[in-house]
Amino acid sequence: MDTNAYVAFLAVGVLMVVIDGQIIYHGGKRYLENANGNPGAGASMTRLIVVLFHLVVLGALALLSTVGFPGGSSLPAVVGRLGVMFLVLALAHAITLSVLARMREEQVVEDITLRGRAAETRVRPADPRSFDQQVQEPVINPVPGQEGRAPHVSPDLGQG
């Protein structure tokens, strides 16, 4: 592959990686922002993921540019390398989207858990008794006529 074809391959590859990274960044920022409601947190997490995406895919592009590729003339070699580069880019895009989906899922679960805890504390009235008093009370309700924490139990039917 001659120098012009090599430079063309790298230019098209870098351009496609940057465009795809920007698409992931802007879409992912809104995606995580809607789950959490905090625009700053969604943007910063998405920025970290997109930086990792750029580093991995640009590294794969650099490695792919040095690998010998079959093709007699320069045009088939460039087209073949671009095809492999697009497949790598698609794989990296899918992995990045799965990471974003997992992060959103974790945010939604955390939000539901926090809302549930807040609703629990709001709905349940505070118990005026101390924790020690609650622990000393019987775990089960005793049978009428039997007092105490561990009431007497009738023998098992198998023993009789």
TrEMBL record:
Region described as Disordered: spans on this chain: 119-160
Protein name in UniProt: Integral membrane protein
Keywords: Membrane, Transmembrane, Transmembrane helix
Compositionally biased intervals (Basic and acidic residues): 119-130
Transmembrane regions listed in the UniProt entry: 6-27, 48-70, 82-101
Superkingdom field: Bacteria
